[in-house]
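Section 3.1: Structural characterization of target chains.
Under the original work plan, the team committed to producing a structural model for every single-chain target entering the pipeline before any wet-lab resources were allocated. The record below documents one such target. The sequence was received from the expression subgroup and is listed exactly as submitted; it comprises 307 residues.
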Amino acid sequence: MTSDVGTRPAPLVAPEESLKIVPARHPLTWVAAAVVAVLVAMAGHALVTNKAFDWPTFAKYLFQKSVLDAVLLTLELTAFGVVAGFLLGTVLALMRISRNPLLRAVAWTYTWIFRSVPLILQLLFWYNLAILYNEISFGVPFGPSFVSVGTMSLIPPFLAAGLGLALHQGAYASEIVRAGFLSVDAGQREAAAALGIPAGRQFRRIVLPQAMRTIVPTAANEIVGLLKATSQVYVMALPELFYQVQVIYTRSGRVIPLLLVATFWYLALTSVLSVAQFYVERYYARGALRTLPRTPLQRLRAVWGRA
């Protein structure tokens, strides 16, 4: 047997003193960051020094009345297409998930046709609807008509453009809304029904909040896409943003600065939509996340508090 009597105890050393902490180094990350910084600096230098950008002309036309009117028309077309498109898409989505085979077939056929035909072709079709029908009548189906209105007066170019955008958007919105409804487990609705919760309350308090978490990110992408798709309305000679910019640079010959004006406004409008998307996603994340993502204002307050 051995004894520890007479041996010197080992010195007590704090764990943080006995271990040497070596921070992880990522040299390739720093090299990549340096390359990106150089490229960003080169791009900024080119924007400032290249006289072809013609920044004075850009500033001259940026807030010109005709350009601002075109921005307003672009917003109106986008709002019309989004509201009407998603209302139609919701109806089509409910038809697709219904038990009636006729409703399912009609909704599937609509989605198939309007997703297959290019948007610009649909816009031209609606713009030339008067060639097919000189007037539109209201009355008994396959029976007498009571009121007839000329197609050109009933569907002016703005309404034709809005209809084209809304009907095209409705096909995509139906799939987005349907995906949101299908993402909610059927067992939750069955459990709610077993507890005696009415169907309307099941939809408002159980299905919709969860479906919106799936719907909102994809729907936001579609809305941004629709905002840019309004530029195709130029084929109908409507003075939206892209059409108006084309008119100005055709007269003045200042192509690049006018294209930059259009770029600025599309970036500004898209940024506003992105901010709205953040807050809508944050609202519907309340039941899924323990801690909600901080808003930009809350982040600024946190940085200011640490300073």
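The longest strand covers residues 145-150.
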